[in-house]
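User: I've been going back and forth on whether these two constructs are worth ordering. Before I decide, could you fold them both?

Assistant: Sure. I'll take them in the order you sent them. The first construct and its structure tokens:
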Amino acid sequence: MVSVPSSERGRDTEPATDSSRQTPEESASTLTPAVRHEVLVNDRRRAIVELLDDETTLRTLADEVARVEAGGGDPDRKTRQSVYITLHQCHLPKLDEFGVVTYDADRKQVRPAAGLWAIRAYRDRIAEYTTRRQEAVSPLPYAGLGLLGIGGLLAGAAGVAPTASWVVAAGAFLGVAGLAGRAVWSERRG
């Protein structure tokens, strides 16, 4: 996480804006789904959301983002320069406009705004939801029971043990319905 000691900060910093005094919940209500998407859709903006904890300089933040892009290693000069320019010209002004950071382009200073905490909370909720969905019931039982049911229907239609085939098909149908009901029930509870 990027943090600049208070001794390195300028004494003439601007007072906090009203958006930086909002709670994450209040700020989240002002961040539309389109804004949240716009912030999180880009790798460099996601890195800024992840790294920025305190006021820092553009240079320090750009070096950290470049390090992330280099996989934690030392980035080359071209990568550092590219990150610096795009952060200055594109990403930080956009994040400032959205209320996620406060960016002073003249002094090259960046600090978190209330929207940053709201974006992090939203990102964490998405990660939690994705994890829960990945741990949900496997689709394999549905597929297996579906194939068993289709096999039973085909066997019944062909006249091979028609009564038993229809019982197998009906059982497979009820099994799929039961699994689906269980999945819906557990999703609503948890």
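The second construct, handled the same way:
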Amino acid sequence: MRLSMDHIVNAVCLNMAERHEVSVESVEVELLYDEERGFGAEVWIQGRSRFLIEANLKEAIMRYVLNEYGQRVYPSQIELEVEDEMWADIHTT
């Protein structure tokens, strides 16, 4: 299974909205990649900025895949990749 950049953004929005008890529409996400720091995201909730690391992204993806597709996946099954844009490959076998 492959999740597009839009799916990853949706996963982070849903996860952060649930954690902070705000509407999904009030969450903004910018996915980031840096060769030294790896994958991450900057999230704005009610005017406050937060930085997420790769583990946070994988947690959001895990919850998204469970809620949207009914499949339980683990961090070791999620591989984040980037070329022109970011995507997540989820290895279920």
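Notes on the second construct follow. The mean pLDDT is 94. The longest helix spans residues 5-20.
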